[in-house]
Amino acid sequence: MRAIPRRRKTSAGGSLVEFIFITLMLVPLFIGASGIGIDLIRTLQTVQLARDAGHMYAKGVDFSQPGNDTILYQLGSSLGLSSAGSSSAALVILSNLIYVDESQCQAVGAWNSVTNMPNGCTNYQKWVFTQRQEFGNTALRNSNLGSPLTSGPTGVTLAAGTGKISQLQYVTQAGDVASFNSINPYQDVSGVISGLPSGQTLYLAEAAGQAWQFKPYFGNAETYSFGLF
Predict the structure, then answer these.
(1) Of 73, 97, 75, whose CA–CA distance to 84 is shortest?
(2) Which pLDDT score is estimated for 215?
(3) In this structure, are residues 169 and 155 in contact, taking their beta carbons and an 8 Å threshold?
(4) 48: part of which helix (H) or strand (E)?
(5) DSSP 114-161
(6) What whole-number distance in Å separates Cα of residue 80 and Cα of residue 45?
(7) How far apart are CA 34 and CA 217, in angstroms?
């Protein structure tokens, strides 16, 4: 009979060591791939939420009404949006904006008809907030447009429930100016706005959600998307 060679004792356990080294490489790769996949799904959910919320907002849906804000929370439920405040895993920010031109200044008596120049029209030729509403976890992130200042001598008052700002305040209060950070197609170029009729407003919906967390590999990142209408 042919003798079966025995494995030498010096090679015993070698396969286990190789498996451990391979595992040390594959496990982080698996965790990373899983995290990227989950974040990709959440990014798509964030984009869809911003788009849906923006369409409804631009169509005149009043989210200060209980029935309408319930629909918004349902739209964002897959992302973790809820009315539980800091316990919510997502956030929706709705902003209504207008460009302050001569007609806006005249409407509040902040225009000198003799000199044809602004008179007390602080925000002349600037984009300002006319409404701001937030739903979900407001501590998750800030708006890319900034926020209307609600304190101090240059601040404005947001109407309870609706978040609306009076015309007098958004024309004259410097704390109401928005910062678009190059996302506005109707940017002010040398004081001239082209393509947007006087008095026309912009509707902006921003959505954010918590990204997948697996510390120390993945920290407190978030997904973000906006829709401009």
Answers:
(1) 73
(2) 61
(3) no
(4) helix 14-58
(5) TTTEESS-TTTTSEEEEEEEEEE-TTS---TT-----SSTT---PPTT
(6) 10
(7) 12
Q: What is the pLDDT of residue 22?
A: 76
DSSP-based three-state secondary structure for 218: strand
**How far is residue 93's CA from residue 57's CA, in Å, rounded to a whole number?**
11
Angle at 192 between CA 191 and CA 198, to 5 degrees: 115
State whether residue 204 is helix, strand or coil. Answer: strand
Q: How far apart are CA 183 and CA 65, in angstroms?
A: 29
Looking from the CA of 128 toward its CB, the CA atoms found within 13 Å total 30
* Positive or negative torsion for Cα 98, 104, 105, 108: negative
Domain ranges of the chain: 14-228
Token duo for residue 94: 């709705």
Q: What share of the chain is helix, strand, coil (3-state, %, to 5)?
A: 35, 20, 45
196 vs 73: CA distance, rounded Å:
32
CB 35 within 8 A of CB 29: no
Residues of the chain below pLDDT 70: 1-14, 28, 30-35, 37, 181-197, 213-220
**Six-digit token pair at 189?**
């170029």
165 vs 157: CA distance, rounded Å: 6
Say what the pTM is. Answer: 0.81
Looking up tokens 């009315």 gives: 83
Instruction: Count the neighbouring beta carbons within 10 Å of the beta carbon of residue 160.
Output: 8
pLDDT on residue 91? 96
Query: Is the CB of residue 82 less than 8 Å from the CB of residue 72?
Result: no
β-bridge partners, 223: 209
